[in-house]
User: Fold this.
Amino acid sequence: IAGHQLDGDTIVLMLHGGGEVRCDASLIERIEVGEPPHTESRMAVVSPSEGSGLRLLERPYGSLILTAANRYGVDQYLIHALIEAESGYRPRAESVRGAMGLMQLMPGLASDYDLSNPYDPAENIDAGTRHLRGLIDKYGISGALAAYNAGEGSVIKFNGIPPFPETRRYVERVMELVGVNQGD
Assistant:
């Protein structure tokens, strides 16, 4: 698998090449995240928003995202793309590491921003966008995305995007979603 998230009692397994599998979390004994097996022909990766014909600005929570984008001076496409990559627009998404909600905020970050309910879309988007703004100011857009995914310590340690395949794919995917959807 390429990654995974908890969504209540359900685990969502993200597959290499796109797509996901959902099942009861109790059925999973072990998870191995890694590189896909090498194949001669590669499938095109289609994001859920592309696959459904639903562009980023047509996705849910558009008014909340636009409000946060304007408040913190962050491109709304970037916020949409980050939410697509982090939670697939599932407000109750929870990662195995405890990240919560649409923008997958860690408990410490939710506490830093005094969120009463990190699963509330309005609170989650506002705090996540404010956090992203701070990361952009420190590291630029690509570095901010890397820090959002792998933590600021990793970006500082490697003086930029860390060499982790998952983080590199994450930055590429978010930037690709922004680029593909700029024509909205």
